[in-house]
Amino acid sequence: MLNQRLSQKLLQKLSPQQIQLMKLLQVPTDQLEQRIKEELEANPALEEGDNGEEELTSTEEIFREEEGNNEESSQESEESNSSDELDLDDYINDDDVADYKTRDDSYGDDDEDNKTVPYAVSDTFHENLTKQLGMCELDERYHKIAEQIIGSIDDDGYLRREISAIVDDLAFSQNVMTEENEIIELLDLIQGFDPPGVGARDLRECLLLQLERKTQTKHIKLAINIIENYFDEFTKKHYDKLARHLKVEDDVLKPVIAEITKLNPKPGGSAKEDGSNLYQYIIPDFTIVNSNGDLELKLNSRNAPELRVSRDFRDMMVDYKNSSSKDKKQKEAIMFIKQKIDAAKWFIDAIKQRQHTLWSTMYEIMLHQYDFFLTGDETMMKPMILKDIAEKTNLDISTVSRVANSKYVQTEFGTYALKYFFSESLSTDTGEEVSTREVKKILSELIEMEDKKSPLSDQELMEDLRKRGYNIARRTVAKYREQLDIPVARLRREL
Known about the structure:
By secondary structure, this protein is an alpha+beta fold. It is 51% helix and 6% strand. Among the domains are: 15-114 and 281-420, no CATH class; 425-492, Arc Repressor Mutant, subunit A, CATH 1.10.10.60. It contains 23 helices and eight strands. The strands form three sheets. The protein has a four-stranded mixed sheet. A two-stranded antiparallel ribbon has the order 1-4. Strands 7-8 form a two-stranded antiparallel ribbon.
């Protein structure tokens, strides 16, 4: 018995322009300029500048003229004609205006072009430690050992690598034989560097190093005693046990605890190995302005220079048309030019489409969250998911996701990531759909207003929210609290 199956597959092939667009949609404004520079370097047919109005000779039938002049074999003629029968008006007419740069109220501000973003230049965390090491009088051997120790310190300032492992590293990589006591001796030297606490092997040692650098007042000595002997009680905020052990009253213990909490648990801080990341600046992709109660959306196109197809490449097409003799090498050259012009046009169109897609998507987000952009009140924020915006813009959900990723909007109330405005919905007692962002805001306010000596538990927070009409479970309260980076009640307790 013969079994026959009929299967049908739907395959979608993306065009080069679609691929360009998908990639460009994910590029934020601060990186767009660099992406355009890369394309300018890769494609000689693409250049910056305005497109002036000029009349160029039409070459609609450039290759068609060759059909009568060339008497090659029929097969060769067919192969060449298939590629040569092209309308070259699209390649030599200079009418590709970069309209994404057209200035109006919706697309950027002329004054923005003249603004520059200052970037601070500074030493990295490890470079700073190495400079301090250079001021110490050490011989070459000890200097190498100290450099190895500094290189083993993490970005947050801690030395988590075992001393024995550093000994092995020096033996195998530097051919320096040493002992653990020498490593510890030099580590003590490095722990005296700035910032205080650097080179500590755990949090306890980090806090002690910082306290020992302070003026040894009564409170500081008591703080050292707590960290040395009652560290577990301190981390668990068992202040009643601390008061009993130290035989002090709460009014004495409170300023001591305050001294400890002011210390830096990560002496390396925000320092990065890349000096350029020491200070990061957010360049907003959009700006929303409140003009007498009406919201105006502007797209930041400062980093998108005007682009055009190179006039030199267009002139080559004209010269080819006017040439009386057209050999095979000339034809190969003109096909190369055609490919480059195609790539240039695809990129220009992709930039245009990017700007249009960004603006239309942000416009619908603005309309959806209109009340929030007017007032800045988070409780006015409506539930919104990617599907809601996709339906309004007639875009795919994945496209909206690409637009929302790594994009920022500047408002009168601060600069927000676009992902901030997307949230799930929650039903109240009255059946009204509210944003989970609103619930988190109220939850944060409840915790802020609580009695710090007796913080609210998740159960108590759940009951308070239900009194306000938000029926959510205790585990949901715990989830929202964790998302807000708020610790449990026991760890929020203060004296």
